[in-house]
Design brief:
- There is one protein chain.
- Helices cover 58% and strands 4% of the residues.
- It is mostly helical.
- It has a two-stranded antiparallel sheet with strand order 1-2.
- Strand 1 and strand 2 form a beta hairpin.
- Helix 5 crosses helix 6, helix 5 runs parallel beside helix 8 and helix 6 crosses helix 8.
Length: 298
Amino acid sequence: MLEDRDYMRQPEYRDPVFRVPGWSWTLILLMAYAVVFLAEILVSPAPQRLVPNNAFCNEYLALSKEGIERGFVWQLITYQFMHAGLLHLFFNGWAIYAFGRELETLLGAKKYLALFFSSGVVGGVFQVLTALLWPQLFGGSVVGASACAFGLVAAFALIFPERELMILIFFVIPVRLRARTLLIISAVLAVGGVVFSESILGGKVANAAHLGGMAMGWFFVRKIMQGDWSRLTGALRPAPQKEIRRPSLEPVPKKNGGDFLADEVDPILDKISAHGIQSLTAREREILESAHKKMTRS
């Protein structure tokens, strides 16, 4: 039946290496950030307890151009777990929680963690490259999971581009916008932050890391998940055909249960299995939703 298909069920994370009963990796990561932040505060000088400032952590664990030049490549991972203050930790944690839960359910643990940490690493690489090109503007160490969070935002916007989101500006003004719009705004702000680094918060925001995280989120969905390499290499595999017609407004044809599943639903489920749910057209999503309602009533 429809709900018996493996890819229509919620992932159970059966891999013994990645399975954590009763927990999600999103929550585990957030707990790890909180523990690391507490540890940073405890080892920081007393007058600055609310703002972590430990010389060893800044030199060896935070990401910096100087550290990478000295061969401290582990900084591309360790900087993701460190934060500069409570607000920094809160904003990153909120974004990861808001977008990570559904992505983890959709992708499964392994792909989700690959997306998460690769976004952080690529974001760190972007930040170091900008520091190498313009050391006077982008020098100093960088900490935070912002690149990971923006990677999740990009992936979410590509998979659910029309999803309507509620954003609270300054925690007061509610604004509704689509996920695609949020990604565009985030990218524009990141590019603007790189170009006008000195005038935006004194250049203290790692906008290059944000941009790198979004780039990796886009790459992960479009190139790795969907396998669309044609735009980069030209002929590795044909690009998927895009439908230009509007979704049909005709009702889904009424057939008996067996014929409907065999003729209409099975090809769609096979397509999901091969290319992912994001490859469906609007008409195919309509048919799948109709099948789901039919199975619920029966």
